[in-house]
Amino acid sequence: MKFKKFIDTKEFQIKLVVTITFLLLLILSFFFSSQIENALSLNSSYNKNQTNYNLLNSSKYLVEYIDVGQGNSCLVQLPDDKTILIDGGNVSSGKIVSDYIQSRGIDKIDYMIGTHADADHIGGLGYVLENFEVKNIYRPFQIAGIGSNSDSFVPHENEDLAEVYNVIVSEEGNRNKVSRITTNIYKNFIDSIYSETYTENNITNQSKVTVFYDGLKIYGQDYELEFYAPLVRDKVYDLSNYSDTYGFATMGYGTTNSNGNSAIFSITIFDETFFFTGDASFSSSSENEIPTSGYAEQDFINSLTIEEKQKLSNVSVYLMGHHGSAYSSSEMLMSLITPKFVVVSVGENNTYDHPSENAIESAKKYKSESDPILSTAVFGNIVFGESDENLKYVLSKASEANSIRISWYLLGSIIFIFIETFVIFIKPIKKQKIKTN
After folding, report:
1. Residue 436 CA to its chain's centroid (Å)
2. How far is the C-alpha of 252 from the C-alpha of 386, rounded, in Å?
3. Quick check: 175 and 150 in contact, CB under 8 A?
């Protein structure tokens, strides 16, 4: 009876209204948590540089790491409205990449870079070439062909570098000094790039194909793309003397080592530098943390001039080499570039155990921002651009920060309900003191 009298009182009704109001506010604040935290400068040490995509609309450029699972693809929209596509993931990722490019309102690609011959990097580029006109294509010095060994190898019929391959083999006397790729995916890539055309001023032109090499630079309005590897061979072979391909023949790292032929390059836009190393490695054993001579990452570092080291000393965003493999991103490299942010393009629950603990710890040790390592497996597409004159990023999937936020909201809800229950239902019901004579 006492409880029934209490719930009929004005005190209870006021507390009930207050409780419902607070619960509604709790629910609403959950859905608008990011905006509230940004306004109050909360969570500043976790994902502090994450922003809303709408805030990047005014950015003069975008660098977008596309989620293609266990592979790599990156779209760059430059200040002069030109575009760069770096890799295209596996064959199955071709449509994903193409749809993504179309969603950005892009109908032509100015620069396409296939960093090396591995299927998870160039596999999807064939589909992209079918659906977009590409003006300039950058390929590795890796010869497409057939044959299980050096003696039986024959360059692919559409391999434009067949003549220079034969010249190098005859002059240097060692077929193993040139990377030979016999996969159908790479042969299809070669077919596609040498048949690609683009239209300009109502004239159809053959796309320009260039082998990337150390020293190659692309300049534009407020940006520069510079290649640091692979290194040019000891004897200089100008490819235009032997083929319709531009550039120079580069060093080989054994016929089966596709990763060693990876493009290592930076894209500097205004004052921000984005750094890429493909699948270049510093070791063939995860137990060897000291970079070993004869590997691409070590050779690249040893070849840098003082000016180049200075340029790479404060990288804005580093795409972790070889998807975070234990054989890349050595401490020597990380201590050189000391990146603000680190991105890893990797598939969820992949069979390679990428990214490795060694690579993650090395990245954490040298990156300057407190934000987490941004993995496409966790965060989906990752887009960098300018907002309020600062480098910011947008994540397409729920972040780890959001997961932590959810747990805190659940805990907050339990505490809130407990307190309200105590205040409303327990506090008013007190035992009456028994008066004694």
Report:
1. 80
2. 39
3. yes
Q: Which amino acid is at 244?
A: D
Q: What is the pLDDT of residues 162-203, one digit of tens each?
A: 999 999 999 987 777 789 999 999 999 999 999 999 999 999
Using CA atoms, how far apart are residues 131 and 67, in angstroms rounded to an integer?
19
The pLDDT score that the predictor gives to residue 177 is 79
Distance (Å) of CA 255 to CA 92, 119, 176, 193, 258: 26, 16, 5, 22, 7
Read off the pLDDT of residues 365-401 as tens digits, 9 standing for 90 and up.
999 999 999 999 999 999 999 998 899 999 998 544 4
Residue 133: CA atoms inside 13 Å, Cβ hemisphere, count? 13
Q: What are phi and psi of 374, to 5 degrees?
A: -90, 105
Count of domains for the chain:
2
Whether 371 and 417 map to the same domain: the answer is no
Tokens of 390: 């600062």
The range of the structural domain enclosing residue 368 comes to 48-398
Q: Which two tokens stand for residue 135?
A: 């003006």
At 257, the amino acid letter reads: N
